[in-house]
Structure formats: structure tokens, C-alpha cells
Amino acid sequence: MAPSFGDLGTFIPSVVRYGTRLRMALVWYVLSSMVVLQVMSLEEAILGLSVPPWLAFAVALVLVPVPAAVFAWMHTTMSDVDENASDFKVLAYAVGAFAVWVSGYFLVGWLTEGRHMHTMYTAVDDLVPYLPSTIFVYFTVYHAFAAPLLVQDDPDTARIVAMEAAAVMLTDFAIMMLYPVTMARPEPSGPPLSAWFMELLHGADPAHNCFPSSHCSAALFGFLAVLTARRHRLAWYMGFSALAISLSTMTTRQHYAADVLAGWGVALAIHGMFMYKYSSLREED
Hints:
Helices cover about 70% and strands about 0% of the residues. The protein is an all-alpha fold. The protein is globular, with a radius of gyration of 20 Å.
């Protein structure tokens, strides 16, 4: 039997009121998966441990983060749960910002295909070793981008943070369109697992979306957003991760040093503009 309008009237609020639990579960999922990938990189680089790709996916995406998410869900007490839809608004803003990044990145790669390409090579790039095992750290940028969007408790603040994230990415894309830069990538090598993931990355990621590095912009944005939210313990971790991700873009031969600096510059400039605007609005109030 189809539910009546009366049934829906009680069902919808019962779903909405679990928004806080869902958001906290996603925060724990993202952060625990991020830690697993970082540990995986260290294990392969230092201990030489390597596992089949399917097991790496299972550990990084299911076996560790799912129990962590369940733990967060169970330990978010009902007193913490908001009765309105504010947490779902936070989730919607996070999804929107992420969609801008992913869709825009591949659209720019398609639009600049076949154009005259530049290089940002400097002597500094020769000083950076090729370390395929850092590919796992490279992938944590998606976690670093999502975490600061998900930890926002207030939907109005989440909207501003999501707008900042979108502005950072759109600025990166505009520069990529105006000055396309490419990089010659080495053939995937190293331990079997790293080589497999490097080959997967090369097949999906355009080699000419280099300048500025959206990876470095996203990583630094994540740190600045968490720091601004005064989540100091998480900010320490996000700051370390932003530095590690930025270094990994060079050690995996995805970016030049100049790309990294430009990516940081975009994130800092946009964050400064939003901080100024937000402070101005508060003064007006």
C-alpha cells in the first residue's frame, strides 16, 4: 500500500532529524579513510609492503572508515541532533562545492585539449625525487577538500565556506584556460600497488591541467577553512596534510614546483577576500 500524506508527514521529519548523525558519520568516514591512505603510503615506502588493489580499496574505503562512521553515528546523542534541516543544508553545500571542482576540472581538460601548451619547469623540479608510493597521499586531497565543508555546524557558515571553495576552483580553472601548462609524466613504476594506481591516475587525469595546481589549492583551502572555524586540533592535522599533499603532487610528477606555489597563492588570495568580506558583513550588522 502506498504511504498516505499523513504517513509522509511523520516520515520526513523523522529522516530530517538524523541529519547531524549523518554529517558526523561522514566526517569520521572521510578523516579515517584519509589516515588509512597516509599510513598505506608510509608502509609501502618504508616497509615495502604491497597488497592487491582490491584489498587496498577495501581497507581504505570500507574496512576502516565504515566502522568509524558507524561509531560516530552511534555516539552522536539525540541531544546533539538538530530537529530542523540545517545539517542537510550543510551536506548540500558540500556536495555542490565538490561538484564544481570535479566537473570543472574535467571540462577544462577537455576544452584545452590540443591547444599550445606551456611548461613551468625550473631547476627546483630536478631536486624533487620521484616517489610513486606518495600516490596514496595525493589521493587524500578529496578528503582534505570535503572535511572542512562537513565539519561546519552552522548552515550559513557552511554556505560561505562552500562559496569560497567554489571560488578557489573557478579561479584555478580560469587560469588553466588562459595559460594551459603540461608536464611530461614518467611511465608508472615502483612497487606494484603504487604503479597500478599511477597507471589508473594517468588514464583518468589530463596531463595539461597543471597550472595552478588545484590539488594544492584544495588542500590549503581545507586547512584555512578548518583554522578559521577554530577547530585547532583538526587544523594541525589538516595543515600537515596540506603540506604532504602539495609535496606529493611533485613526487608523483603531476605538477611543477611553480604549480604548487600558484595553487597556494590562489587559495590564500580567495580566502583573504572572503575573510575581508565576512568581516565587513559582521561590522555592518
